[in-house]
Design brief:
Elements (H helix, E strand, L loop, with lengths): L13 H19 L1 H8 L3 H8 L8 H9 L7 H19 L3 H7 L6 H9 L6 H13 L2
Helix pairs in contact: 1-8, 4-5, 5-8, 6-7
Length: 141
């Protein structure tokens, strides 16, 4: 989700990668404050508190980017979402993967059409789905 913040993405399983994403989100929430992040993002405090407590609430890529964007040292949420999708698309290009190959490689956890729609931003993607796709794509580069 974040360029150059995670080492050896392709060597990590999706659960480990998701945990790494959530750790970064938790750091931002703790530094900015739950109330501030909730106000600026529209994400309810209970969801943010659950994340900080170590739970894994279903956050979309857009919600995660909104959380990150509350950190004044980071780009805005729209840039972060576009960059995250770009990472997937460029990875697919570099690894010469199409959505059918990804579907097969992730044991059909997502359908090919669904993968395409999520990568292109036409359908919401959770950060868990992003971790699954990101890890698989990077492992094939």
């Amino acid at each position: 989700m974040l360029r150059d913040e995670f080492e050896a993405v392709g060597d990590r399983d999706s659960d480990d990668l998701l945990a790494a994403y959530e750790a970064v989100l938790t750091d931002v929430i703790e530094s900015q404050g739950i109330e501030t992040v909730a106000t600026e993002t529209g994400i309810d405090e209970a969801t943010l508190s659950a994340l900080v407590a170590g739970d894994s609430p279903d956050l979309t890529l857009e919600e995660a980017a909104a959380v990150l964007a509350t950190d004044p040292d980071r780009p805005d949420a729209d840039f972060l979402v576009a960059d995250a999708r770009d990472i997937l698309m460029m990875g697919m290009s570099t690894a010469v993967l199409d959505v059918e190959a990804i579907q097969s490689g992730i044991d059909s956890e997502l359908e090919a059409k669904e993968i395409q729609q999520k990568v292109e931003g036409r359908h919401p993607m959770t950060i868990a789905e992003y971790a699954l796709l990101h890890g698989f794509i990077e492992s094939k580069k």
